[in-house]
Design a protein that fits this description.
The chain has helices at 12-34, 64-71, 98-119, 147-159, 202-218, 236-243, 272-281, 298-304, 338-356, 362-365, 368-381, 397-415, 420-436, 440-450, 455-468; strands at residues 44-54, 76-78, 84-88, 92-93, 123-125, 165-170, 174-179, 191-197, 225-226, 229-230, 260-261, 308-309, 311-317, 323-329, 386-388, 394-396. It is an alpha+beta fold.
């Protein structure tokens, strides 16, 4: 959810000042790029993992403040709710051993987190949506103790003129709710991948990342349930989009623009176009004046952090202060295991690298409307989705991943310098999962049916399998 702020009340003057600084920094960033300021040509990978704190009844345990004090690890930070935390890792340059290094880093942090949790009679879990969560758990009393979250909630409701947030999702079952806060967003947790890319190639990588969303998500779905209802294969997608449903400025912005969005098109020249879109079409939700030097674009970055594109461009800085561009791939759910998530990372990094380096830009052969439709089809139907590809043909997601996605990913990872053994170790997990059809969502639904709809028993079995470390396609039903 981003950086903390120090105040919760803002005046009209604060908003004017922030908006002025935002406009200045947006223009300055364009000038910086045109002057060749983005000189870092490396490819660097990273991730963020959102996880759940549970009690031994499998319910959300809202203790993250005491938990984080006990853990005392700067790589683990609060999330929106008191029963979620976020695990981070140092970035790793792409090359031989990168996936193994990321896996080792996450396993080390996860094991330490789990040990501290056990000392508090708590369990750490990774799953896109917790099947045992209740509507009553998603209350403002369970919002994390950060001013940022209070302000975001208040500002979203203010921008909606007090209108309640409506949740309407239809799958096998149906869910219709009305809420007066944004806490339903806390029902969704993700595994977000970062890829720093050379600025001159960033447009192709951004567009390729959009194109990759559908096959990547179809192979990785892990969120089929909410409040006992069987909804989409990746219910996180409609829940997150509707939980902070908010458009742009009334009368000034396109009404179709939303705060959580797949976007309205490919970028033409660079992802900096999206920062211009941020300025022109999205109201400021966090008008907190920033003291950091304008050369680090603090107002631009804070504003960007309150716009949740499924693929989000980020401006970052290395230890020497050198600016870089990286892309945040936000579509993947948390879980089912560390190995499953690293396999998903392998699929993304390889696929996007191969697509971005095609002789003919991939985005020229796939209309944006098809990339967007593919994404929502994958979220609804998982491996049973039908996807349109660059050749104009339609494939089942399963066939696409096996016949086109995995070969491209293998090529991309090898071009990054990964040895065949590392490539096959991780992509082999994806291949076995897709051939079996047993994604995290498929396992949850099958197991739920076998235990007569008992979400607590199903979740207990899920956690036992997760602790084993075996990838989800090997779990017995």
């Amino acid at each position: 959810m981003g950086q903390e702020i120090t105040r919760t009340h803002f005046s009209a003057a604060d908003l004017r000042q922030f908006s002025g600084k935002l406009a200045e920094e947006t223009a300055a960033l364009q000038s910086f790029a045109q002057a060749g300021g983005f000189s870092d040509a490396r490819y660097v990978a990273g991730f963020e993992l959102e996880a759940w704190l549970l009690d031994h009844a499998g319910r959300p345990n809202p203790v993250n403040e005491a938990y984080l004090r006990a853990l005392n690890d700067p790589l683990v930070v609060p999330e929106l709710s008191r029963f979620n935390v976020e695990l981070n890792a140092p970035p790793v340059e792409m090359g031989a051993g990168v996936l193994a290094a990321m896996e080792e880093s996450l396993l080390t942090t996860w094991d330490n987190c789990q040990q501290v949790a056990h000392g508090m009679d708590t369990v750490l879990a990774m799953i896109g949506i917790l099947p045992t969560i209740r509507d009553a758990d998603l209350c403002l009393a369970n919002m994390s103790a950060m001013k940022r979250f209070d302000v975001l909630n208040a500002q979203v409701l203010q921008q909606r003129d007090g209108a309640p947030i409506r949740i309407d999702i239809e799958g096998v079952d149906q869910l219709h709710l009305s809420r007066r806060d944004v806490m339903l967003e806390a029902a969704t947790t993700s595994f977000q991948l970062h890829l720093q890319v050379p600025f001159e190639q960033a447009a192709h990588y951004y567009n390729a990342t959009l194109i990759s969303c559908a096959p990547l998500l179809a192979a990785a779905v892990n969120s089929p349930l909410l409040f006992g209802q069987r909804l989409w294969q990746e219910t996180r997608v409609p829940v997150f989009e509707q939980a902070v449903e908010l458009g742009g400025y009334a009368g000034l912005a396109e009404p179709t623009l939303r705060r959580v969005t797949f976007g309205r098109g490919y970028v033409a020249n660079s992802p900096l176009e999206l920062f211009e879109e941020n300025l022109e079409h999205y109201p400021v939700l966090l008008p907190m004046p920033q003291e950091e030097t304008s050369t680090r674009y603090p107002h631009l970055r804070l504003h960007n952090g309150a716009i949740w594109r499924w693929v989000r461009p980020l401006i970052g800085f290395d230890d020497a202060g050198q600016a870089h561009m990286r892309l945040e791939q936000r579509v993947l759910p948390s879980g089912p295991t560390v190995l499953d998530m690293m396999a998903n990372a392998a699929l993304y990094f390889g696929l996007v690298h191969a697509l971005a380096r095609q002789p003919v830009a991939a985005e020229t052969d796939l209309p944006f409307s098809d990339a967007r439709a593919n994404f929502y089809a994958a979220a609804r139907h998982g491996l049973q989705a039908e996807l349109t590809w660059l050749d104009g043909r339609r494939y089942s997601a399963r066939d696409f991943v096996l016949e086109i996605g995995l070969p491209l990913a293998r090529q991309g990872l090898r071009d990054f310098g990964l040895p065949d053994a590392e490539v096959e170790h991780y992509l082999g997990v994806v291949e076995a999962r897709v051939r079996s059809g047993q994604t995290g969502s498929a396992w949850q639904l099958q197991r739920l049916a076998q235990v007569g709809g008992d979400v607590h028993r199903m979740m207990d079995d899920y956690l036992v399998n997760q602790r084993s470390g075996s990838p989800v396609h090997e779990w017995s039903v």
